[in-house]
Amino acid sequence: MAKIIAIANQKGGVGKTTTAVNLGASLAVAEKKTLIIDVDPQGNTTTGLGIERASVQHSLYQVLIGEVSLAATVLKTELACLSVAPSTKHLTGAEIELVTTERRESRLKEALRSIEQSFDYVLLDCPPSLGILTLNALTAAKSLLVPLQCEYYALEGLTSLLETLKLVQRGFNPELYLEGILLTMFDSRNRLSHQVAEEVRAHFPDRIFRAVIYRNVRLSESPSHGKPALLYDAHSSGAQNYLELAKEIIRNGEEN
Amino acid sequence: MAKIIAIANQKGGVGKTTTAVNLGASLAVAEKKTLIIDVDPQGNTTTGLGIERASVQHSLYQVLIGEVSLAATVLKTELACLSVAPSTKHLTGAEIELVTTERRESRLKEALRSIEQSFDYVLLDCPPSLGILTLNALTAAKSLLVPLQCEYYALEGLTSLLETLKLVQRGFNPELYLEGILLTMFDSRNRLSHQVAEEVRAHFPDRIFRAVIYRNVRLSESPSHGKPALLYDAHSSGAQNYLELAKEIIRNGEEN
Ligand SMILES: Nc1ncnc2c1ncn2[C@@H]1O[C@H](COP(=O)(O)OP(=O)(O)OP(=O)(O)O)[C@@H](O)[C@H]1O
Ligand SMILES: Nc1ncnc2c1ncn2[C@@H]1O[C@H](COP(=O)(O)OP(=O)(O)OP(=O)(O)O)[C@@H](O)[C@H]1O
Ligand SMILES: [Mg+2]
Ligand SMILES: [Mg+2]
Fold first, then answer.
1. A103-157 pLDDT, tens digit each
2. Most C-beta atoms within 10 A of its C-beta, which of A69, B37, B47, B138?
3. C-alpha of A198 from chain center
4. What is the pLDDT of residues B203-247, one digit of tens each?
5. Are A11 and B12 within 8 A, CB to CB?
6. Rounded Cα gap, residues A168 and B229, in angstroms
7. Is B38 helix (H, G, I), strand (E, B) or coil?
8. Where are the alpha helices (DSSP H) in chain B?
């Protein structure tokens, strides 16, 4: 059974896609068969892995409305153990179209049943909102990974995200647990980064990853080459930080 | 008649709220009566201006479902010419509740009719999505200001945002025009910033503001004090950049 992790935070630009792409690549080089599903209509995970959205045959939108199976959308990447289920701009319509349908929040969960045994890890890259697409991901997932940018507005949004987690645990997915809070874009020269980190460590002591992702220009350059940082500049601190995160998640999984 | 400007971009974390708060403050010190409406359920504009969300009596959610007038929500700020219409977490429900109602996209436009003559400028801070809340803002606005972070993923999203602009112009709001594209978080030491700026200038030569917002830590610190950068550190490059932007927008308005 695959470990399905939703990467979600309604605050925009906190590093959800960067985490999905680079954690996925790091798990793949550790020989874990990994699938990343792009649940965001923006499709940044899709292009961040070098796939041209216009040439995609089948995408997540068609899966959610029941037209194709999830397996039909899965594409290979440059890494042997890494695959991706892409999204196209049609996915924007899903938010409105699914509102009035049956089992609207369980579409992704049902679609995953038929393929999850082919993978060790499935990562779900979510859009910056708490709408029906994110709800589908939280219902399908076994755990939630929260990227948290070390900035004031991002910290502010954490409480409402954890409230949403509780609502989903009470309703659609009682088994869902918090995989951890990941500090991203940490800049050690910047007092604000340290303040945010201290505040999170004080409020959520045992829920924050030891691995920290530092601000690193290689992480923002690599998407323009359609590659994870590991393939663009393996020695960069960004690539190394995500390898550390992958090791920590694999270790946590073995202990549970 | 007020100049109503929607500040929108579905890409997350590109500086929409930072632009709404700091452009609003800069227009206010230029003696322009300015209202900022927080159309984002995250409520970052509300707290960025020092308002405690839990103590808000009437908010935008109640306006959109027709319970109160927009005027009843307007609060004063530390700047005489700056007011804010706050949002609370109830606004999250509006996306789903409005889907099946009449004139769902024109609620904000209608609500603005009764108060727009009391202001020179109204700024609409949008959430990071192209859902019903952003659609309400684009239908109510006279123009669209697009903050564009100088990063690859942000550049990628620009085309689909400009497509949405065309759709809204053809359907709900034929008068809507592009006020301009604003480069944000520009870091002159970073090659990627220059590459993105060159690409935007090449593709959209006459639609990009001369004013550029440089990455400046004061802009990310000021929200934790509930103040725009002008009141937190008026000499910072961030505060100065937004004063320049305000001057450029006022000048553009006088020439048209
Ligand atoms: N550690 C880092 N160092 C430097 N840049 C980073 C880092 N992490 C992410 N970035 C850059 O910051 C921007 C925002 O990151 P990203 O797009 O991954 O966030 P997101 O949460 O997925 O955004 P959205 O809410 O739009 O989905 C991107 O341009 C990305 O390249
Ligand atoms: N020029 C700048 N220099 C440094 N930091 C900035 C700058 N502009 C914005 N920031 C910071 O970057 C983060 C993202 O900005 P902001 O929240 O304004 O973007 P947004 O587009 O409103 O995000 P969302 O999509 O979540 O609504 C914030 O923490 C903000 O303080
Ligand atoms: Mg993303
Ligand atoms: Mg915002």
1. 899 999 999 999 999 999 999 999 999 999 999 999 999 999 999 999 999 999 9
2. B37
3. 24
4. 999 999 999 999 999 999 999 999 999 999 999 999 999 999 999
5. yes
6. 38
7. strand
8. 16-29, 44-48, 60-64, 91-99, 107-113, 132-140, 152-170, 191-203, 217-221, 229-232, 237-255
- Pocket probe for ligand 2: among A153, A183, A186, A220, the residue whose CB has the most ligand atoms within 8 Å is A153
Burial of B213 (0-12, 13-18, 19+ CB in 10 A): buried
Q: Which residue of A has its CA nearest to B130?
A: A92
Interface contact B217-A192, CB threshold 8 A: yes
Residue A98 to residues A65, A135, B129, Cα–Cα distance (Å): 8, 11, 16
Asked if the model's pLDDT at residue B256 lies above 80, the reply is no
| A108 touches A139 (CB < 8 A) | yes
Question: Distance (Å, rounded) from C-alpha A144 to C-alpha A138?
Answer: 7
Q: What is the mean pLDDT of residues B160-166?
A: 94
Ligand 1: residues within 6 Å at CB? Answer: A 12-18, 40, 44, 128, 184-185, 213, 215-216, 219-220, 223, 238; B 11-13, 128, 151, 153
CA dist A141 and A122 (Å) reads 9
Burial state string for B86-107 with b = 16 or more CB within 10 A and e = fewer than 16: bbbbbbbebbebbeeeeebbeb
Partner residues linked to B34 by β-bridges:
B82, B121
Q: Could you say which of B96, B130, B149 has the minimum Cβ distance to residue A99? A: B96
Entry field: residues in chain B: 256
Q: Do A44 and B128 touch (CB under 8 A)?
A: no
User: Phi/psi zone of residue A91: left (φ > 0), alpha (ψ -120 to 50 degrees), beta?
Assistant: alpha
Contact between B146 and B180 (Cβ < 8 Å): yes
Q: Cα dist. A111→A99, B27, B204 in Å?
A: 18, 51, 41
